[in-house]
Amino acid sequence: xxxxxIALIGGGNIGGVLAExxxxxxxxxxxxxxxxxxxxxxxxxxxxxxxxLVGSDAKLSGTNDYSGSADANLVIITAGLARKPGMSRxxxxxxxxxxxxxxxxxxxxxAPDAYVIVISNPLDAMVYTFKKVSxxxxxxxxxxxxxxxxxxxxxxxxxxxxxxxxDVSALVLGGHGDTMVPLVRYCTVAGVPxxxxxxxxxxxxxxxxxxxxxxxxxxxxxxxxxxxxxxxxAIEMAxxxxxxxxxxxxxxxxxEGEYGVDGLYVGVPCVLGAGGVERIIEVELNADxxxxxxxxxxxxxxxxKQIEV
Length: 309
Fold this sequence. Notes:
Blueprint: E1 5-9, H1 13-24, E2 29-33, H2 39-54, E3 60-63, E4 74-77, H3 93-110, E5 115-118, H4 123-134, E6 141-143, H5 146-161, E7 168-169, E8 172-173, E9 181-182, E10 188-189, E11 192-193, H6 200-211, H7 213-221, H8 228-242, E12 247-256, E13 262-273, E14 276-280, H9 287-305
């Protein structure tokens, strides 16, 4: 049986980690697209030459033309500028909007049947733009945000408690930005609510750190933004689609009535399987959580209003 073909649009830091992990896990054959001549070809060649050392037979190639992504089963988009210190994700809107429009046109032309995971920032606006321009059905276009935000939340809780990260479960909803909503009530350690382990003060600190986690990395790196954790978050989503795992993951999905949202991409829990976004799961929100979610939603709405496609 032929391996799935996975096209990575953007050969920067995230694209590089994606290519390496996907190929070395043999999730599929990988083609890296980038506008910089030689960059995707060089990265692909380097990884391909290392593949025997991890026993991977997945094929890797690079291209500067969208035709190289022809007939891809899955497309993961990282193209666009990364944040610099002092920038919010929203500051990237104008530049990355132009890039996303051309990406959507290229993917629509050459990989019309692909499932698409968008990572580019500002995430909620970028995945909305891809959907609008491509005209793809909503089940095949999803944004990576909540998986990353949730894994950061999980990390901070596990470190604080000195327990395995595997035993911490967390859910972060809303837009992928400073208004994201970590749902403390749904965070558990081996099924036990986190509130039984940590004081409210400590929980508030972890929530604040989760919201600012991307900026914390940007401030330290000074020359770019996080790239390993976003790539791994997208791979968790890709695996669930390619292997029909039906994982329940927080993703940026197009809501059409769910959570009282109509026509916007926003972070909600969904079931990811061979059919892409197979369904959105509506969790009960109390009044405080709902207020935070609505504020996050309003922020996303403000961004989307600036988009002309």
